[in-house]
Design brief:
- There is one protein chain.
- This protein is mainly α.
- The protein has a single domain, classed as Rossmann fold.
- The protein has seven helices and two strands; from the N terminus they run ααααβααβα.
- The chain has helices at about 1-10, 20-45, 55-65, 70-80, 95-110, 125-140, 155-170; strands at about 90-95, 145-150.
- A two-stranded parallel sheet has the order 1-2.
- The protein is globular, with a radius of gyration of 16 Å.
């Protein structure tokens, strides 16, 4: 898929000189392609669609982390995604230091598999603090859509909480 190729380019550490605005454009290009190839057809067929990343991630990473701001991200979302919004977003927000350490360990495992997805993990702590804070801001701005699960609960407990929330939302 075209989106997978765009994503590889975005994550590859060899694209370290990519400007923040070019990165933002590529993020939305990937998303627009995913909407066209996967999301819209599934929704039209009456299916439930789960995504592990969407515009909130772009707002957090490029708007917050890269300091482009929320306004440009939300404008591009309207243009490139046609304003398509999730009905529910589950934001897993563990302790900042623990989550950063886990992300870097996970990337080390990916690198050992021969895949280079290290570009974002090379960022400093200040970048990730801005990302983390932007996620909190989004959750506060959209409390009806974004359910925040804070803390470092065991994976099974987190799973059960997510299932409960999704079942409640689907019942409505």
């Amino acid at each position: 898929m075209i989106g997978d190729r765009i994503r590889q380019l975005l994550l590859d550490s060899r694209t370290e000189n990519l400007t923040a605005r070019a990165e933002l454009g590529l993020m939305f290009s990937d998303r627009a392609q995913a909407i066209a190839e996967v999301i819209s057809p599934a929704l039209e067929a009456g299916h439930i669609v789960l995504c592990d990343r969407y515009t909130d991630s772009t707002e957090a990473y490029q708007g917050g982390g890269r300091q482009l701001g929320s306004e440009v991200v939300l404008k591009l979302h309207e243009v490139m995604c046609g304003g398509l919004q999730p009905d529910l977003t589950v934001l897993l927000l563990p302790d900042f230091d623990a989550s950063l350490m886990r992300a870097r360990r996970r990337n080390d495992r990916v690198k050992k598999s021969g895949t280079d997805e290290n570009r974002f993990e090379r960022e400093d702590e200040a970048f990730y603090r801005r990302v983390y804070d932007k996620y909190r801001e989004i959750a506060e701005r959209e409390p009806l859509r974004v359910l925040t699960m804070e803390g470092d609960a065991h994976i099974e407990e987190v799973h059960q909480r997510i299932v409960r929330v999704v079942e409640e939302r689907l019942a409505r």
